Amino acid sequence: MPPRGSRGPLPPLLVLWALAACAARASEITFELPDNAKQCFYEEIAQGTKCTLEFQVITGGHYDVDCRLEDPDGIVLYKEMKKQYDSFTFTASRNGTYKFCFSNEFSTFTHKTVYFDFQVGEDPPLFPSENRVTALTQMESACVSIHEALKSVIDYQTHFRLREAQGRSRAEDLNTRVAYWSIGEAIILLVVSIGQNTIPLGVKRVTQQGQKEGELVDKCIGSRIHIVMKSDKEIVGTLLGFDDFVNMVLEDVTEFWFLEEKDLKCEDMIFICTLRINAKSK
Amino acid sequence: MRRAPPGGRAGGTMAALGEALRAAVAALLLLGWSAHGLYFHIGETEKRCFIEEIPDETMVIGNYRTQLWDKQSESFLPSTPGLGMHVEVKDPDGKVVLSRQYGSEGRFTFTSHTPGEHQICLHSNSTRMALFAGGKLRVHLDIQVGEHTNNYPEIAAKDKLTELQLRARQLLDQVEQIQKEQNYQRYREERFRMTSESTNQRVLWWSIAQTIILILTGIWQMRHLKSFFEAKKLV
User: Fold this and answer.
1) Which of A231 and A40 is assigned the larger pLDDT?
2) How far apart are CA B150 and CA B159, in angstroms?
3) Looking at the complex, does the CB of residue A24 fall below 8 Å from at least one CB of chain B?
4) How large is the average pLDDT for residues A207-227?
5) CB A110 within 8 A of CB A35
6) pLDDT above 70 covers what percent of chain B?
7) Is residue B188 within 8 Å of B197, Cβ to Cβ?
8) What is the pLDDT of residues B40-51, one digit of tens each?
9) What is the C-alpha to C-alpha distance for residues A255 and A3, in angstroms, rounded to an integer?
10) Is the ipTM here above 0.85?
C-alpha cells in the first residue's frame, strides 16, 4: 500500500483493491453431469463487469447439453438447448448473484462431462499496489503484449485439448462398439444359420408306428410289390416312391379285380399261387 | 467514500478511526466473502467430483469454503464449526493422490506426476447429519492450475525482483506451461492414434472372419440340405 499521511483514503483503497481483485476471476471447471440431472453455479458480480461464459461438452451421448444464464432478477440472459459448444459475453447490468445452469434432463442414460470457463472482469494487474502515473517503458509494454499473446496461446491450447478429448472419446466409443457388434453378429449369424437348417427340416416324427411302417415300405423301393386294397382290388407294380400318407408311385402296373361268378368264363381264369406276407402291424 | 468528520478535531479523529475500522472490516469481510467467487449447492451427504486434465509436474491449488443451510433463519450460516469436507484426488490410473479431511474452509494442493485426467472429489463429513435429510450446503470453490497458482507479489518480495524481472518471470512460467501442455498433447495424440489403429484392425479382422463364417455356413447348409433331400428321396 502506498504510504499515506492520513488514514482516511487508505481503507477505501483497500476496499477498492479487494473489489477489483475479487471482481477479476476466471473459474475453469470440468464436471460430470449425470443423466436427468441439472447442476447450477452461482456467482456474485458487481455492476458493469464484463463477463464471459464458455462451455463445451467433452464426453457423453450426442455431446450436447442445455445451458441457461439468469441475472439476479430471474431474467434469462442466455438460453440454449442441446448445444455442444458456445461462448456468451455479457455486461452485468446490476449487482447481485448471477446463476447459470447446465441440464442433462433430456437424456435417459448418458452421463455428460461438461467444461465451462466463467470469466468475470479483466485479469488483475501484476502489481495491484502501485498506481501508474508514468507510462510503461518499451520493455514493459513489450512484456505486456507478450503476456497477452501467451494468454491467447494458452486459450487456444485449452480449446484444442477439449476438442481432442472429444475426438478421442468418440474414437474409443467407436472401438468398443465395433468389438461388441462383431461378437454379437458372429453369434447371431451362427445361431440363425444353424436354426434355419435344422428346425424346419430335421424334426423327427413322434409316432413309432409311422416310423416302422415308413421303414418297411422304404425297403421295398425299387422292387415289385403286390398291393391288396380294401375294395378287393389288387395292384402289382414296381414301387418308385411314396410319401408320408403312403401315396405310392408305381411302374409297370398290373391291376386285378374280382368278377361276379356268373360273369366268369374258363378262359378268364388264371390260377395264381403266391405266398402273401401280411405285414400288419399293431 | 470519504465522509466529512462530524466536527471538532477530537471528534474528527475518532470518526476517522471509526470509519477506517469499519472500512477495514468491510474490506476484510469482502475479501473473506468473495475471495471464492463461484459457488454451488450440494446435499449434505452428496459427493461432487471435478475433472482436471493436466500435464505432469503441474501444481493444482484448490480453495473452498462451505456454508450450511440453517432452517430456522432460512439462510446460509456464515460459518459452521465442526463441519468438514473430505477431499479426495485420484490420478489418471485411479490411484489416490490426496485424501484428507479439511475444515469448513480449506485449501488443498497437489502436484501431478502422471499426465491425464485427475479427479477431485468433495463430500462433507457429516455422517450424523445424514439422519436429518434435506440439508443443503453451499460450497464456494476455486481451482487454479499451473501458472495461475503462482502468487507474483509474494515471489517478487521473496526474490527481490524488479518489475521487469517479475514480468520476465511471469512470461517464463507461462511459456513453461505451454511447453508442458504441448508435450502432453503429443502423448494424447499417440493414445488417439493407438485407439484408431486398434479400431481399424478390429474392423479388418472382423470382415475377414465374417466372410469365412458365411462361406463355411453356406457350404454346411448346402451339404445338410442335400443329404436331407437325398434321405427323403426327393433328389
Assistant:
1) A40
2) 13
3) no
4) 74
5) yes
6) 80
7) no
8) 988 877 888 999
9) 139
10) no
Say yes or no for a CB contact (<8 Å) between B170 and A178.
no
Helix (H) or strand (E) holding A1, with range, is none
Model pLDDT, residue A10? 44
Residue B18 has pLDDT above 50, yes or no: yes
Closest CA to B86 of B132, B123, B136: B123
Find, in chain B, the residue whose alpha carbon is nearest to that of A175: B199
**HEC per residue, chain B:** CCCCCCCCHHHHHHHHHHHHHHHHHHHHHHHHHHCCCEEEEEECCCEEEEEEEECCCCEEEEEEEEEEEECCCCEECCCCCCCCEEEEEECCCCCEEEEEEECCEEEEEEECCCCEEEEEEEEECCCHHHCCCCCEEEEEEEEEEHHHHCCHHHHHHHHCCCHHHHHHHHHHHHHHHHHHHHHHHHHHHHHHHHHHHHHHHHHHHHHHHHHHHHHHHHHHHHHHHHHHHHHCCCC
What amino acid occupies position B80? T
- DSSP class of residue A246? -
Contact: B178, A31; criterion CB under 8 Å: no
The C-alpha cell at A95 is: 449487482
